[in-house]
Amino acid sequence: xxxxxxxxxxxxxxxxxxxxxxxxxxxxxxxxxxxxxxxxxxxxxxxxxxxxxxxxxxxxxxxxxxxxxxxxxxxxxxxxxxxxxxxxxxxxxxxxxxxxxxxxxxxxxxxxxxxxxxxxxxxxxxxxxxxxxxxxxxxxxxxxxxxxxxxxxxxxxxxxxxxxxxxxxxxxxxxxxxxxxxxxxxxxxxxxxxxxxxxxxxxxxxxxxxxxxxxxxxxxxxxxxxxxxxxxxxxxxxxxxxxxxxxxxxxxxxxxxxxxxxxxxxxxxxxxxxxxxxxxxxxxxxxxxxxxxxxxxxxxxxxxxxxxxxxxxxxxxxxxxxxxxxxxxxxxxxxxxxxxxxxxxxxxxxxxxxxxxxxxxxxxxxxxxxxxxxxxxxxxxxxxxxxxxxxxxxxxxxxxxxxxxxxxxxxxxxxxxxxxxxxxxxxxxxxxxxxxxxxxxxxxx
Length: 445
Prior knowledge:
Elements: H1 2-57, E1 70-74, E2 80-85, H2 94-102, E3 110-115, H3 127-133, E4 138-143, H4 153-159, E5 163-166, H5 170-176, H6 178-186, E6 190-198, H7 216-227, E7 231-235, H8 236-242, E8 258-262, E9 282-287, E10 300-304, H9 333-342, E11 347-350, H10 354-362, E12 368-374, E13 399-407, E14 410-417, H11 436-439
Parallel strand pairs: 3-4, 4-5, 6-11, 6-12, 7-8, 7-11, 8-9, 9-10
Antiparallel strand pairs: 1-2, 1-3, 12-14, 13-14
Helix pairs in contact: 1-5, 3-4
């Protein structure tokens, strides 16, 4: 009888355990489904952000004083219903363009945008208000706006009851908006050093001849770079030796960059140089002591201080161009770049000789180097870079490759310093460059 009762109790316990298991499965199923939905949403939002980054990158260097921003709108079922990018000053921002494409399908959906939506009124209204009016339920952005004038959009959206998440693909979005973010956080233009050289790092032969080390395809690619920068900078030695035009040619469409010539003594420049032909704005950057000097026809004088570098500073040597000439080194690079930003120049392509490049590198003012390497060897002739004052291998400037690809018979390499441009912090006290763009022109739209 006792054994029978015990078997009954065991059967009851087994039934209770099985029921508990069934109840647990019922409870776990919604949690699992929620996790699966969250994972699916994250994957869709990541794809949308990659597309938004592509849209932003297409406008790099073409948006004037404004950032390059891309936006993709998803409906409440995570389907893409609109996309857009900011085109130029005074035109609608990326969020507004994407919302217009989405129409009423944006209600209850998600806006995926590369930069924190602005919360201020310029020549266009705040994007935060456009998102709220469209009925968007969620906003995902990549990079926080580091400026006090336009920043704070995430907090405004959250206060309106919109879910907000930041930091998705921040590094990629920073790269796509690198000009504007450098302006805001470093208070100077983005600087790209462009060079063409042989495999052994020569930019000309021993007799000074240099046309052409690289191929026509590489030279056309260099003109694409010019079209995406606000200014092209060379030293006086390059003007005297190579007489470059510095315009955009080779069938490349794009605005003409401002031409900047750095000279320690403007009187040594030939007035007939092609950079003074009047076809594009040309700035002649000189030490302050030449502030009253006469500029060549077709050029504007840009006095820069402090006028001189210490005599033992190896980077104070001249820009040699291809000839190793002897002037151009007495303009402070940081002061020059600050002045160029004040003139509305957001990015600079450095095409000067080895001394100009060395001076900017020594000052920590180069953000990227793009080189075209020809499969040729010379063994003698000017090197692509001047003296940096580095005596041991431990002092080498360490860079990392971003890309390497063939361009015709040549190899195009892109390298950046280690570390690369830092990703701005998410909103909060001490954000880098707080209010920086207000004094530098700021948002104009």
